Every structure is written in C-alpha cells, then in structure tokens.
Amino acid sequence: MDLDPYTFIGMATKVSLDQAPPVKVLKNLRSSLDSARMEKDTWKYVEKNFRGGGFYEWSGIKYFLYEYDLSLREQSKTYREKISWEEFSEDMRDHNTVEHIYPQKPMKPCWKDKYNKFSAKERKVLRHSLGNLVPLSRPKNSSFQNKCFEDKKGNEKNKVGFRYGSYAENEIAMKSQWTAVEILERGVRLLDFMEKRWGFSIGDYDQKVRILGLEFVGYEKSASPKRSRGQRTVNKN
Description:
Layout: H1 5-16, H2 22-38, H3 42-50, H4 61-76, H5 85-90, H6 94-97, E1 98-100, H7 109-115, H8 120-127, E2 133-135, H9 149-153, H10 167-173, H11 180-198, H12 205-212, E3 219-221, E4 232-234
Antiparallel strand pairs: 1-2, 3-4
Helix pairs in contact: 11-12
C-alpha cells in the first residue's frame, strides 16, 4: 500500500515545477488510492496508526475538516464562505485553526466532572479523537480553549463562540452538552461522511468505533431497523 504522504508531496512538487503533466500525476494518484481501497489490511493499518495519537496527528486533518465544513455549507443552501482554505491551510499554528472541543488541558470542574471517570489514557484518546476536533473560521485567543462548553458555544454577549463560527462550529453549538457520547457519535458521523465523500467502505458501526479507539465509551446493541446489521448505538446511561 503506497500511501506515504511524501510520495504525494513529490508528485505535487513535480507538477508545480512543470516536471510532470498533471494528468499523469492524477492517474498515478487514483491508481494508488484504488489499490489501497482493494487491500484487506488498509483499515487495520489506519486503525493501528490512529489509536494512539488520534486523528489530531493526521497530516490530512485540516483538509478533511475543511471538506466536511463545505458539505455542511452545501446542505445549508447558502453561498457564504466561512472558512478560507488559503488562510486555514497556511496557518501552521494548529491551535488557531483546529479546536479541541473537550480541551487539551481541561482544568475546570465542568470538564473534570464529565471526564474524570475515564483513565488518563482514555481521556487523551477522547481529546484527540476525530469527533472532538472542529475547524475554526477565525482564530480564538488561548483562553477560549479551556472554557466550559456553554461558554465555548457563545451567546449574545459573547460572539466569539461556536454559534458565530464555521458551519461545523454551528453544528456543535446545537448540542446541549459535550460528553464522551457526543465525541463518539460525531466521530462515527464524520467517518460516514468520509466513506461517502471519498468512495470507500470503512465497515459497520463497530468497525468505526474501533478505528476511533473508543470501545471504552459505553454503547449497546440497537434493535432499530434504521441501523445496518451489526451496527450499534451509544448507551447514554
């Protein structure tokens, strides 16, 4: 499976220097991705690499979150651009562009009360999990990162919160709370989007939970016919 990011960077460099025709590079890229989709071990490789540091360490996290925000914009049927890809991709300070909803340094009781039932290792997994990451439409000051969820959402007096940000931020602001359950549910939803957007199959609900490394978050079998066979639903009790 040739998915080394440096291979893709090399391809892009050759195109930018007029050393390779874009059509040929695109053909090679599609061939590499098609080959990866066909390999049985592809998602074992993905699962192994994301269980430790989470998706926050993924070099493609900004691009993926940007694509997801664009999809929400399309669903809203508006033309207002809330995130500029040029500014979003060029800002090397990740904390200014990708926010941990459950903070990296959760010192306030509002976070400790909800998450201290998990071990230190599990809390780390939750913080860097895909469902806990949101693209910011504009940089927030450092004090924003550790605020309680209600404060992060924003209100009429505080207009720097999620309510006034990107489409993904707006979606988060609709939640009444932010617990491990919300992180798991949103993570699975983002993987569902990834499947549809990029044209491959990750697997059923249980497989997505394993990729996210969130098996320790309580969830139980669902009898709902709306879910695919083997899929599960989160137990909020």
